Amino acid sequence: xxxxxxxxxxxxxxxxxxxxxxxxxxxxxxxxxxxxxxxxxxxxxxxxxxxxxxxxxxxxxxxxxxxxxxxxxxxxxxxxxxxxxxxxxxxxxxxxxxxxxxxxxxxxxxxxxxxxxxxxxxxxxxxxxxxxxxxxxxxxxxxxxxxxxxxxxxxxxxxxxxxxxxxxxxxxxxxxxxxxxxxxxxxxxxxxxxxxxxxxxxxxxxxxxxxxxxxxxxxxxxxxxxxxxxxxxxxxxxxxxxxxxxxxxxxxxxxxxxxxxxxxxxxxxxxxxxxxxxxxxxxxxxxxxxxxxxxxxxxxxxxxxxxxxxxxxxxxxxxxxxxxxxxxxxxxxxxxxxxxxxxxxxxxxxxxxxxxxxxxxxxxxxxxxxxxxxxxxxxxxxxxxxxxxxxxxxxxxxxxxxxxxxxxx
Length: 409
Description:
single chain; 409 residues; six-stranded antiparallel beta sheet; five-stranded antiparallel beta sheet; 34 strands
């Protein structure tokens, strides 16, 4: 009897303590960043061209000729033959530790591997060859996510290399949470021979130059000699730089704090023209002749409380002006093609708008049953990737229609 009574009392006590923790104002849900590491030995020997592989976590994509290159976050690049968009086919995998971005010109592929820049010859797509490795030229290239807690414990700095972060939401005692703003504070063009990336790209080729943004800088490479890039002086651009987009003689940088416009009239020395600050949120940008379209994603991992599509008048590059903001749920990448604007609104699907009369933005389509990440509007059709699936859509006069889906895993 006493034993049973003890069990009942203990159960009540545990429940009471648990319920108290759940409702205790001293506790809160916080974003915890956990390190993703590999051994230094694995990093040095990480480059390999392999047969097709299942994808683990689909990231950015890049279109070049009849091929699509899909990043497997921090692991490498899946190569897809898209000569028949109705029936794409995986043909290979370029294993690259710490890779998140690529760019291609004249069958030469440039890819990041943490702080290094790799150069590949893809003239024969079935026999890809590594040409060069430039070491320590992208020194701030590991992206620091917005998080409340960074867990550094357990990393063997003598034998391991940090390649990225995984973020999770956990309930923790507020007094034990140290904010990490300090970590964030310090931490298609006209060339036919160049491929096309999405709005989340950090690499951009313009003529004979490759611009690669890291957390703080525009890293500049002269690629007039394609297989032997020349490292030029980098340009400091601020904090939390995330994306890069080119329009004419301007670069548009998306950061967690704003949009920065740089003039590349002198391509070796970009100069700041203006900036549009929006607070703190995740921020890709695309541009047409008169407007910049910026998606801001709120929530714990990005720092802002609201999500939306911002339309900014850039007719005067020196004084960008916000025209309108359309609420969104969790927007990621976006793209423009002629009179259409495509917005990936995360789990809320792909949204298609008519942008002929900005700031009025009527919706043409809403594909609700897809998880979306980024889009590339090609000349003939639209590419979209999200949640391990490659989607392709054909353009219609006043909308778009699904052409094919392709499971990447």
